[in-house]
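Researcher: Please translate sequence to structure tokens.
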Amino acid sequence: ADVCSPDLTTRFPLVIHLTNLAGFIEESIAAANEIDESSSETVDQANEASRTSIGLSLEEIYGWMVNDYALVLGPSAQASDASGINDYITDLPLEFGILIDPSAVDAAAVRVVDAVETVLREQLAPAAEGAAEFTIERDADLITVTAVDQTGTVPFTLTINFGLTAGAFVLATPGVLLEGTPLPEGETFQAAAGTIVDTPASVFYVDFKPLVPFLRPLAPLDYTVETSVTVLDLLDFATLSSAIDADGNGSDDNTGGTDT
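Model: Translation complete:
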């Protein structure tokens, strides 16, 4: 399954589509060991902590993540319509998440969901009592966690989905899982798609238009933000894509688009 669907790329201004997250993690661990041999002890400690807390080793958690995955980020519907900084106070102004294709390894993914649910119910929720109110719900293999921070003047709400849904393993805010009306200027991806290399191994895509209304209410707070808004308002999109040829060599294509 292709977790980076056209629906995602038309609704979110920033999408990174890659493959083999497990391989990336293993390579990162190996690189860290080459730089500092003591990092292997850190990995061992993390493994032991993982087994103790959720009953799974690190490899059992990420080892099945060998297929495509996508990282998405964009302003929430509320933030896109914000008129001032106060509109960002009670709810997170961003939608974000990671979606992983769990093809043929659903059972391994479900074990992770089961383990995390146990930790959430038995450890996290009781530990946060008094500071935040947690609601934990499970529908099939998808967990929805809603946390309401009670420590501030105005309660702040954050909802995260974790688990399997619609053919993907997700850790994401609810808006990432919705289908429907794309964000303003979402059709920009159609123009950007023409700049992506054939059969890409990875794609990085940014649609700048939805970011402008998200940042504009913050502009009065800082000159840097105000300048960024001015610059971003001149741009349409940017893409960075790479492909692997038959000989195993990589190639990159960097492209930007502006208003004319």
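Researcher: Any highlights?
Model: Residues 212 and 249 are 37 Å apart (CA to CA).
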